[in-house]
Protein backbone atom coordinates (compact mmCIF):
# COMPACT_ATOMS: atom_id res chain seq x y z
CA UNK A 1 0.00 0.00 0.00
CA UNK A 2 2.66 2.60 0.81
CA UNK A 3 4.08 2.17 -2.70
CA UNK A 4 0.86 3.14 -4.33
CA UNK A 5 0.30 6.05 -2.05
CA UNK A 6 3.76 7.41 -2.77
CA UNK A 7 3.40 6.89 -6.49
CA UNK A 8 -0.02 8.47 -6.55
CA UNK A 9 1.39 11.51 -4.83
CA UNK A 10 4.33 11.86 -7.18
CA UNK A 11 2.54 11.03 -10.42
CA UNK A 12 0.95 14.43 -11.09
CA UNK A 13 4.36 16.04 -10.71
CA UNK A 14 5.77 13.85 -13.45
CA UNK A 15 2.98 14.83 -15.78
CA UNK A 16 3.26 18.54 -15.12
CA UNK A 17 6.60 19.18 -16.84
CA UNK A 18 5.32 17.35 -19.90
CA UNK A 19 2.34 19.57 -20.43
CA UNK A 20 4.41 22.62 -19.63
CA UNK A 21 7.02 21.72 -22.17
CA UNK A 22 5.19 21.25 -25.42
CA UNK A 23 8.21 22.59 -27.27
CA UNK A 24 10.54 19.86 -26.09
CA UNK A 25 12.00 17.83 -28.92
CA UNK A 26 12.26 14.57 -27.06
CA UNK A 27 9.53 14.49 -24.52
CA UNK A 28 9.83 10.71 -24.08
CA UNK A 29 13.44 10.91 -23.02
CA UNK A 30 12.67 13.73 -20.65
CA UNK A 31 9.93 11.69 -19.10
CA UNK A 32 12.29 8.80 -18.53
CA UNK A 33 14.92 11.05 -16.94
CA UNK A 34 12.28 12.52 -14.69
CA UNK A 35 11.13 9.09 -13.61
CA UNK A 36 14.56 8.12 -12.28
CA UNK A 37 14.50 10.33 -9.14
CA UNK A 38 10.82 9.45 -8.59
CA UNK A 39 11.58 5.75 -8.63
CA UNK A 40 14.48 6.41 -6.25
CA UNK A 41 12.17 8.21 -3.83
CA UNK A 42 9.65 5.38 -3.99
CA UNK A 43 12.40 2.89 -3.28
CA UNK A 44 13.63 4.85 -0.26
CA UNK A 45 10.11 5.24 1.12
CA UNK A 46 9.53 1.52 0.69
CA UNK A 47 12.81 0.77 2.45
CA UNK A 48 11.95 2.95 5.43
CA UNK A 49 8.53 1.38 5.71
CA UNK A 50 10.17 -2.01 5.55
CA UNK A 51 12.57 -1.18 8.39
CA UNK A 52 9.84 -0.03 10.72
CA UNK A 53 8.62 -3.63 10.51
CA UNK A 54 4.99 -2.77 11.10
CA UNK A 55 2.04 -1.79 8.96
CA UNK A 56 1.65 1.98 9.07
CA UNK A 57 -1.77 1.71 10.71
CA UNK A 58 -0.45 -0.07 13.78
CA UNK A 59 2.44 2.34 14.03
CA UNK A 60 0.16 5.33 14.28
CA UNK A 61 -1.91 3.72 17.02
CA UNK A 62 1.11 2.84 19.09
CA UNK A 63 2.65 6.28 19.03
CA UNK A 64 -0.70 7.95 19.86
CA UNK A 65 -0.86 9.86 23.09
CA UNK A 66 -3.51 10.58 25.64
CA UNK A 67 -3.49 14.18 26.80
CA UNK A 68 -4.66 15.45 30.18
CA UNK A 69 -7.58 17.14 28.44
CA UNK A 70 -8.62 13.96 26.62
CA UNK A 71 -8.38 11.98 29.83
CA UNK A 72 -10.45 14.60 31.64
CA UNK A 73 -13.15 14.50 28.99
CA UNK A 74 -13.19 10.71 29.03
CA UNK A 75 -13.48 10.48 32.81
CA UNK A 76 -16.10 13.19 33.07
CA UNK A 77 -18.46 10.89 31.23
CA UNK A 78 -18.26 8.70 34.29
CA UNK A 79 -17.95 11.24 37.09
CA UNK A 80 -17.75 15.02 37.01
CA UNK A 81 -16.07 15.16 40.44
CA UNK A 82 -12.86 13.72 39.07
CA UNK A 83 -10.04 15.95 37.85
CA UNK A 84 -7.04 14.60 36.01
CA UNK A 85 -3.72 15.79 37.43
CA UNK A 86 -1.38 14.06 35.04
CA UNK A 87 -1.09 11.41 32.37
CA UNK A 88 1.96 9.22 31.89
CA UNK A 89 2.84 5.99 30.13
CA UNK A 90 2.07 2.94 32.20
CA UNK A 91 4.35 -0.10 32.09
CA UNK A 92 1.81 -1.69 29.71
CA UNK A 93 1.85 -0.65 26.05
CA UNK A 94 -1.20 1.34 25.00
CA UNK A 95 -2.40 1.86 28.56
CA UNK A 96 -1.92 5.22 30.26
CA UNK A 97 -1.51 5.88 33.92
CA UNK A 98 -3.78 8.71 34.93
CA UNK A 99 -3.50 10.39 38.32
CA UNK A 100 -6.77 11.91 39.40
CA UNK A 101 -8.02 13.97 42.29
CA UNK A 102 -11.31 12.69 43.67
CA UNK A 103 -13.28 13.75 46.76
CA UNK A 104 -11.58 10.72 48.37
CA UNK A 105 -8.06 11.88 47.62
CA UNK A 106 -5.67 11.18 44.80
CA UNK A 107 -6.09 7.94 42.92
CA UNK A 108 -4.54 6.09 40.00
CA UNK A 109 -6.57 4.94 37.04
CA UNK A 110 -5.60 3.39 33.72
CA UNK A 111 -7.08 4.46 30.40
CA UNK A 112 -6.45 3.28 26.86
CA UNK A 113 -5.02 5.65 24.26
CA UNK A 114 -8.37 6.32 22.68
CA UNK A 115 -9.96 7.20 26.00
CA UNK A 116 -12.59 4.52 25.50
CA UNK A 117 -11.90 2.26 28.43
CA UNK A 118 -11.05 2.74 32.06
CA UNK A 119 -9.13 0.04 33.83
CA UNK A 120 -9.58 0.10 37.57
CA UNK A 121 -7.13 -2.11 39.39
CA UNK A 122 -3.50 -2.63 40.23
CA UNK A 123 -0.54 -3.47 38.05
CA UNK A 124 1.64 -6.17 39.49
CA UNK A 125 5.11 -6.74 38.12
CA UNK A 126 5.22 -10.50 37.76
CA UNK A 127 8.99 -10.84 37.98
CA UNK A 128 9.15 -9.26 41.43
CA UNK A 129 5.57 -9.51 42.65
CA UNK A 130 5.62 -5.75 43.29
CA UNK A 131 2.27 -4.00 43.25
CA UNK A 132 3.33 -0.96 41.24
CA UNK A 133 -0.01 0.80 41.61
CA UNK A 134 -0.12 0.49 45.37
CA UNK A 135 3.46 1.68 45.68
CA UNK A 136 2.73 4.76 43.62
CA UNK A 137 -0.57 5.39 45.40
CA UNK A 138 1.07 5.45 48.83
CA UNK A 139 3.52 8.06 47.65
CA UNK A 140 0.73 10.14 46.14
CA UNK A 141 -1.26 10.34 49.33
CA UNK A 142 1.65 10.89 51.64
CA UNK A 143 1.21 13.69 54.13
CA UNK A 144 3.96 15.77 55.64
CA UNK A 145 3.76 14.81 59.30
CA UNK A 146 5.18 18.16 60.37
CA UNK A 147 2.30 19.96 58.63
CA UNK A 148 -0.10 18.65 61.22
CA UNK A 149 -0.37 20.53 64.46
CA UNK A 150 -0.12 18.39 67.59
CA UNK A 151 -1.78 21.09 69.68
CA UNK A 152 -5.32 20.37 70.83
CA UNK A 153 -4.98 16.64 70.42
CA UNK A 154 -5.83 13.93 72.89
CA UNK A 155 -2.70 11.97 73.74
CA UNK A 156 -2.72 8.23 74.25
CA UNK A 157 0.48 6.55 75.35
CA UNK A 158 3.83 7.76 76.61
CA UNK A 159 4.09 11.53 75.99
CA UNK A 160 7.88 11.15 75.73
CA UNK A 161 7.73 8.35 73.17
CA UNK A 162 9.83 8.75 70.04
CA UNK A 163 7.36 7.09 67.69
CA UNK A 164 4.49 9.42 67.02
CA UNK A 165 1.25 8.65 65.24
CA UNK A 166 -1.55 11.05 64.42
CA UNK A 167 -5.02 9.59 64.25
CA UNK A 168 -8.05 11.36 62.81
CA UNK A 169 -11.01 9.64 64.38
CA UNK A 170 -14.73 10.05 64.78
CA UNK A 171 -15.79 9.89 68.46
CA UNK A 172 -19.30 8.78 67.54
CA UNK B 1 -4.36 1.72 69.89
CA UNK B 2 -5.00 0.97 73.54
CA UNK B 3 -3.60 -2.50 73.11
CA UNK B 4 -0.51 -1.12 71.41
CA UNK B 5 0.29 1.43 74.12
CA UNK B 6 -0.45 -1.06 76.87
CA UNK B 7 2.40 -3.20 75.54
CA UNK B 8 4.97 -0.65 74.40
CA UNK B 9 5.98 2.72 75.74
CA UNK B 10 7.86 3.97 72.67
CA UNK B 11 4.63 5.02 70.94
CA UNK B 12 2.31 7.94 71.44
CA UNK B 13 -0.92 8.55 69.54
CA UNK B 14 -2.15 12.08 68.98
CA UNK B 15 -5.88 11.84 68.49
CA UNK B 16 -7.65 14.45 66.43
CA UNK B 17 -11.40 14.68 66.28
CA UNK B 18 -12.65 14.01 62.79
CA UNK B 19 -16.44 13.81 62.90
CA UNK B 20 -18.04 12.34 59.79
CA UNK B 21 -20.92 14.77 60.14
CA UNK B 22 -22.88 13.44 57.20
CA UNK B 23 -23.38 10.05 58.80
CA UNK B 24 -23.05 10.84 62.54
CA UNK B 25 -25.13 13.83 63.49
CA UNK B 26 -24.01 14.09 67.14
CA UNK B 27 -20.41 13.61 66.25
CA UNK B 28 -19.48 17.26 65.80
CA UNK B 29 -20.89 18.26 69.23
CA UNK B 30 -19.08 15.37 70.90
CA UNK B 31 -15.85 16.27 69.14
CA UNK B 32 -16.08 19.85 70.37
CA UNK B 33 -16.86 18.70 73.92
CA UNK B 34 -13.75 16.49 73.92
CA UNK B 35 -11.49 19.27 72.61
CA UNK B 36 -12.87 21.63 75.24
CA UNK B 37 -12.14 19.05 77.93
CA UNK B 38 -8.44 19.36 77.05
CA UNK B 39 -8.52 22.63 79.03
CA UNK B 40 -8.97 20.46 82.12
CA UNK B 41 -6.10 18.22 81.10
CA UNK B 42 -5.39 15.35 78.73
CA UNK B 43 -6.78 12.74 81.13
CA UNK B 44 -10.17 14.44 81.25
CA UNK B 45 -10.36 14.64 77.44
CA UNK B 46 -9.24 11.02 77.07
CA UNK B 47 -11.90 9.90 79.53
CA UNK B 48 -14.60 11.71 77.55
CA UNK B 49 -13.33 10.19 74.31
CA UNK B 50 -13.39 6.70 75.79
CA UNK B 51 -16.92 7.31 77.06
CA UNK B 52 -17.92 8.45 73.57
CA UNK B 53 -16.37 5.32 72.02
CA UNK B 54 -18.26 3.23 74.60
CA UNK B 55 -21.45 5.02 73.50
CA UNK B 56 -21.98 6.59 76.92
CA UNK B 57 -23.47 10.08 76.95
CA UNK B 58 -20.90 12.82 77.41
CA UNK B 59 -21.40 16.37 78.72
CA UNK B 60 -21.87 19.24 76.31
CA UNK B 61 -19.03 21.43 75.12
CA UNK B 62 -17.84 23.98 77.65
CA UNK B 63 -16.07 26.27 75.20
CA UNK B 64 -16.14 27.60 71.68
CA UNK B 65 -13.37 26.41 69.43
CA UNK B 66 -12.47 26.15 65.76
CA UNK B 67 -10.08 23.24 66.35
CA UNK B 68 -12.54 20.64 65.06
CA UNK B 69 -13.40 22.74 62.00
CA UNK B 70 -9.71 23.25 61.22
CA UNK B 71 -8.96 19.54 61.48
CA UNK B 72 -11.98 18.68 59.34
CA UNK B 73 -10.84 21.16 56.71
CA UNK B 74 -7.33 19.75 56.71
CA UNK B 75 -8.56 16.18 56.44
CA UNK B 76 -10.98 16.98 53.66
CA UNK B 77 -8.24 18.69 51.67
CA UNK B 78 -6.12 15.57 52.03
CA UNK B 79 -9.05 13.37 51.05
CA UNK B 80 -9.41 11.58 54.41
CA UNK B 81 -12.73 9.87 53.87
CA UNK B 82 -12.85 7.16 56.49
CA UNK B 83 -12.06 6.93 60.16
CA UNK B 84 -9.73 6.34 61.67
CA UNK B 85 -7.23 7.82 59.23
CA UNK B 86 -3.78 7.15 60.59
CA UNK B 87 -0.76 9.28 59.71
CA UNK B 88 2.73 7.99 60.47
CA UNK B 89 5.91 10.01 60.85
CA UNK B 90 7.21 9.02 57.44
CA UNK B 91 4.06 10.44 55.87
CA UNK B 92 2.38 7.10 55.28
CA UNK B 93 -1.39 7.38 55.50
CA UNK B 94 -3.57 4.42 56.38
CA UNK B 95 -7.28 4.70 55.80
CA UNK B 96 -9.43 2.72 58.19
CA UNK B 97 -8.70 0.66 61.27
CA UNK B 98 -5.77 -1.74 61.27
CA UNK B 99 -5.09 -4.57 63.69
CA UNK B 100 -2.47 -4.50 66.40
CA UNK B 101 -0.01 -6.61 64.44
CA UNK B 102 -0.14 -4.39 61.34
CA UNK B 103 0.19 -1.29 63.49
CA UNK B 104 3.24 -2.71 65.24
CA UNK B 105 4.88 -3.73 61.98
CA UNK B 106 4.47 -0.24 60.49
CA UNK B 107 5.74 1.34 63.70
CA UNK B 108 8.81 -0.90 63.68
CA UNK B 109 9.69 0.29 60.17
CA UNK B 110 9.74 3.91 61.28
Structural class of chain A: alpha+beta
Number of discrete domains of chain B: 1
SSE ordering of chain B: HEHHHEEH
* 3D shape of chain B: globular
Strand content of chain B: 5-15%
Q: Biggest chain pair contact, residues each?
A: A-B, 35 and 52 residues
- What is the count of β-strands of chain B? 3
Kindly state the number of beta strands of chain A: 8
Shape of chain A: elongated
- Proportion of residues in β-strands of chain A: 15-25%
Q: What is the N-to-C order of secondary-structure elements of chain A (H for helix, E for strand)?
A: HHHHEEEEEEHEE
What does this structure look like?
- The complex is a heterodimer of chains A (172) and B (110).
- Chain A is of the alpha+beta class.
- Chain A folds into 2 domains: 2-62, no CATH class; 65-142, Nuclear Transport Factor 2, Chain: A (Roll), CATH 3.10.450.70.
- Chain A has helices at residues 2-20, 27-52, 56-63, 68-76, 132-140, and strands at residues 83-89, 95-102, 105-112, 118-119, 124-125, 130-131, 154-157, 163-169.
- In chain A, strands 1-2-3-4 form a 4-stranded antiparallel β-sheet, with helices on both faces. Chain A has a two-stranded antiparallel sheet with strand order 5-6.
- In chain A, helix 1 (2-20) packs antiparallel against helix 2 (27-52).
- The termini of chain A are far apart.
- In chain A, 15% of the residues are buried.
- Chain B has one domain (2-109): Glutaredoxin (3-Layer(aba) Sandwich).
- In chain B, 46% of the residues lie in helices and 13% in strands.
- Chain B contains 5 helices and 3 strands; from the N terminus they run H-E-H-H-H-E-E-H.
- Chain B has helices at residues 2-7, 27-37, 42-53, 67-78, 100-109, and strands at residues 11-17, 85-88, 93-95.
- In chain B, strands 2-3 form a two-stranded antiparallel ribbon.
- In chain B, strand 2 and strand 3 (93-95) form a beta hairpin.
- In chain B, helix 2 (27-37) packs antiparallel against helix 3 (42-53).
- The model of chain B has no long low-confidence stretch (mean pLDDT 94).
- Strand 7 (154-157) of chain A pairs antiparallel with strand 1 (11-17) of chain B.
